[in-house]
Design goal:
Blueprint (H helix, E strand, L loop, with lengths): L2 H7 L8 H4 L29 E3 L9 E5 L2 E4 H17 L7 H30 L6 H14 L3 H10 L4 H23 L4 E12 L2 H12 L4 H8 L11 E6 L6 H8 L10 E3 L2 E15 L2 H22 L2 E3 L6
Parallel strand pairs: 1-8
Antiparallel strand pairs: 2-3, 2-8, 4-5, 4-7, 6-7
Amino acid sequence: MDLKTIGRLVVLALLFASTACVPTLVTSEPPTLVPTSTATVPAPTEPAATSVVLPSPTPEPPLAALVDGQPVYLADYERELGRYEASLLSQGIDPISPDGQENLAQARAWILNVMIEQVLTEQAAAAEGIVISDAEVDAYMQEMIVENGGEELFRAKLAEWGETYEDAWREVRAQLIGMAMTDRIIEGVPAAAEQVHARHILVDTLQEAERVLAQLQAGADFAALARAYSQDTSTRESGGDLGFFPRGILVAPEVEEAAFALQPGQFSGVVTSALGYHIVQIIERDPARPVGPETLRLLQDRAVQEWIEGLWAQAVVQRFVEISP
């Protein structure tokens, strides 16, 4: 992600517009094992075991949270929530309407999680020796000033959002630290990996899977059975072909585990996943095959997400605001 792209996502963007803050409902789709597109890192989540709600320990300055002893101030949290509420008004959504209240209820948790995760990221970056200098932040701020028509217009735009130049400076620094940490993680994802070329048959019931398996054991052609019976519409016409893939790419880990346990020409027994009942066959194996660009991006995204989940799992988070509806 280049500097200009980050700019559109950072200072001019910690407003938490509803499209970014509120989870989007996803309608159901036909089952498929291979992701159809890469995804950005998901919104923050926190394990319940590491987070508790307590009364604020000190009256001044009041806290929204403590993250391994580091404060998240209530004033900062309320400012971000206020920006989000203003964004609802700009979209014609009354914050006191049922729809507005539902959006705000979701935003309260989301915004606080973002702020907690920012602290966790900065703590991890400091432990890794990652430092963003004042000069780097100043240079980036200057670029944003130029892009927005000069300092006067830039400051006026910030004022519209309830931001000061100092607020924006701190937010840019935090985001640049996050990007530097992300870059370090994705650099560790190898561009080549052991991969298998597999195909599968997906059916709805165990009985049907056992009937298909019996036909395979009697010598039936795997691809022909996949075209006849498989419920995976994305691979059915190609005889169930999943192509080459490394570990960590399929949405059904049970199928992936079965695939990597087989040798070329072998097929599995019935494999159960959340999608249904599968039979898997391996066509080829490659111990060090280059990873395609889309697959590499997905593996990188997952590596970042797993790193974030690890931060949450190890953190002691104390909350001092009620974020439930």
